[in-house]
Amino acid sequence: YEWTPAGGFHQISTPFAPASSAYGLPITLAELDGFIVANQPGSNFWYQSNLEDAATWDALNFAEASGDPDNIRALAQIHREFVLLKEYETEFWYNAGTAGFSFARIDGAYLEVGICAVGSRCRLGDSLVWLAQNQEGEGFVVELDGHKINRISTQALEAEWGGYSAIADATAYT
Questions:
Q1: In the chain, at which residue ranges do the beta strands (DSSP E only) sit?
Q2: Number of neighbours of residue 134 by Cβ within 10 angstroms
Q3: Cβ of 174: how many Cβ atoms within 10 Å?
Q4: CA gap 166, 116 in Å, rounded
Q5: How far is the C-alpha of 15 from the C-alpha of 46, rounded, in Å?
Q6: Any idea what DSSP says for residue 168?
Q7: φ and ψ of 98, to 5 deg
Q8: Alpha-carbon distance 56 to 160, whole Å?
Q9: For residue 80, which of 30, 49, 124, 171 sits 20 to 30 Å off, Cα-Cα?
Q10: CA-to-CA distance for 58 and 47, rounded, in angstroms?
Q11: Predicted TM-score (pTM) of this structure
């Protein structure tokens, strides 16, 4: 939903998905420089709204997170950049000011870990923290430090999670 002083609350309609995802995955949103962005569940595509208009989405204003073909699970904005948290990788994008889709990938800024639990991403001070996973499916908590990560969970905690039937439903709060 979007709220405006003149119109109150109204539902936002995106060019790619109904209100509930057919894939059963959440749609995440982030904001930067007057644009709202959203991921298309079950894909590596993400879309931007029109400038200062969260209710208007041009179907041609999208990009593909193409560093690797896995799906985007969550979006975040930190330090004036978008962080695209995929299943097994993470990409960084900035506002390049281009016509149409305004954002461009930051070359060389790429992490070979993704996000295991969408509900685990959270801001912690001036950083971003999430329950990450690698290609082997191992879960561990990381803290973003620029375009690098620091592993902040302990081996004992990771071993405990290894005994759980699922960790993808984990949630974090700050």
A1: 2-4, 8-10, 29-32, 35-39, 45-48, 62-64, 72-78, 81-86, 90-95, 103-111, 114-115, 122-124, 127-133, 139-145, 148-151
A2: 14
A3: 7
A4: 10
A5: 11
A6: T
A7: -80, 160
A8: 45
A9: 171
A10: 8
A11: 0.89
CA 136 to chain centre: 21
160 three-class SS = helix
d(CA 137, CA 111): 15
pLDDT in tens, 38-92: 998 889 999 999 999 988 889 899 999 988 889 999 999 999 999 999 999 999 9
Cβ contacts of residue 107 below 8 Å, gap of 6+? none
Q: Computed from CA positions of residues 136, 21, 122, 157, in that sequence, does the dihedral angle turn out positive or negative?
A: negative
> What letter does residue 147 receive in the DSSP assignment?
T
Residues 110, 56: Cα–Cα separation, whole Å = 30
Strands 29-32 and 35-39 turn out to be: antiparallel
Structure tokens at 121: 């991403």
Rounded to an integer, what is the distance from CA 153 to the centroid of its chain?
21
DSSP assignment of 100-142 equals SS-EEEEEEEEES-EES-GGG-EEETTEEEEEEE-TT--EEEE
Longest dimension (CA), the chain: 53
